[in-house]
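dude i think i finally got it to work??
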Amino acid sequence: MTRVVIAAASPTVRAGLGALLAGYPGLTVLEVTGRPAGLAELAETVEADVILLALEAGGQLPLPLWLPPDAAGQEPAVVVLGDETTEGWVQRALRAGARGALPRTASGEQIAAAVAAAAAGLVVLPAAAYQARVRPALNAAAPAQPLTPREVEVLAMLAEGHANKAIAARLAISEHTVKTHVGSVFGKLGVSTRAEAVASGVRLGLIML
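look at this
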């Protein structure tokens, strides 16, 4: 069961999204809150798998969107609903730490599917952003310097949504070593975020989701 927290300033939006997600199997809404800016504090008080952040019209992204891991070492995923669907806006959301970004006009099925996908470690993009961002990359060449087997292991765990501490524990290495591997993966793949690294790894056939 995917645990969801809805964060939105508007009571109407909160109620609408809460009622919408309550009707989908596999999702349980833990809390509906008007604290869209205090995501880190929210993540510390409620153990959620996904925080659905609905921005107001013209609202700005509360940065950063990386959230602290819970007691099990899992980082809650953030899915943002906003007005803009441009490539630049989506890129800012992903670089800030969001796992997904959709327009506020997305259907209930799209929002529910995005929440489930983000909880599973997938990256969710609007169709327009996919056309601009992902499809041109399909023809890109493989990295000049291949990833080592250990780096591929780390990349696979990033795709599963594990924090550095959890990866270190599973691989029996230090967090410093994990950070080194992550930095090397970013450099070899030519990316700057975990989401981009996972997307690149999938495209290149290094990992599977």
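The radius of gyration is 17 Å.
im so relieved honestly
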